[in-house]
Give the backbone structure.
Amino acid sequence: MGKSSTSQKIFKYVLEHAKDVTDTFDINLGDIPQDVVTSRQQAEPHIKNVRQLMEKKVLTPDADLSSVDFGLIDMAKWAEVYGEPIRQALKSGNVVAVDGTPLLQPQRFLTTQVYACAIGTLTYRDLLALKAQVVKTQADQELFQNMEATIRHIEETERLSSSRSWPAAFMEYKERETAYKHHAKHVLIDGPLITQNLLTQTEGRNLYEKMLVANRKCYVGVTKDLRFADTEERYEAVALRTGELFIRNTEYNVMKERLEKDYKGAVKTWSEDYLRDIFRGIYKPGRKAFGFQCHRDDLPSVVCLLSMDCHPQPGHEIPFLLEQVDAKIRGRYRPTETMSAIEATLARHNMDEFYDETEERMFRK
């Protein structure tokens, strides 16, 4: 069934099953909380079945990972075997957390798009280090203006501003470039190690090649929120027990169907060379499960990094260094304040430009 027919079927279903809660919403929120509880109860038998599938392959610390595609790991047992070098690396500042934050959300002005972000790094030996970057897209200006030149300028500006992915790709690139250049040999990255934005860009693949060579550092990408993951991954996350890590698959196997349909040529060739050795998985150091990506050869170190530097707060048990760099960088920069400063400058320069380039909500009483 195609996407279009599936969408039509879903829309027809929701129209037929819509329920009027006008009179009950203020009393019991339209029974929405109870619906969520019931949904979880209905899922319990399926969660047990998923758990049985996960337990089919339990990986011990001496497992040969060269041909592994999935497996369940007791993190404490692996940390007993591989933990000491990571413990020393944490103490000596040889583990760095890398995160980025927008300084300014992408803004589309009349002739240009502007975006700014900051990348932060933090170790247990080094204070927060920040680097801010500003980037923009702008159509070339022609020396002699006429009607044809204006039309070309407008068309070029529209083409450049039609892409919505470049700001995210820019920050992802700068985060990983910073990780590659940092002196630490073990790197915690906020978000997936391999992103779709960078996979589809020549410059992104070139950077990944440098990161994934034989004498590479140990990189691990940490996904903090699994609510928007695919359904199978969410079931596995619920089935996971505290202190466990589960290798779901290789990144190549996860993307194989899309590579055949959507990403042929250079992207497909590169993925066949590199993504077979990138594990995608989930882990649960405490009450909540998180996602991770890493190279298969780095898994012993990654298991230790994810379990030994765990934040103590229930439900927020990401690596403590990663939590700290996130908190510090967002405490330093606030995009809304930056935008307010830009609007104030516009107002001083040209009041008409201020009204044209400012969101209408700003003028509501």
Residues 350-358, 360-364 have pLDDT under 50 and may be disordered. The CA atoms of residues 84 and 304 lie 9 Å apart.
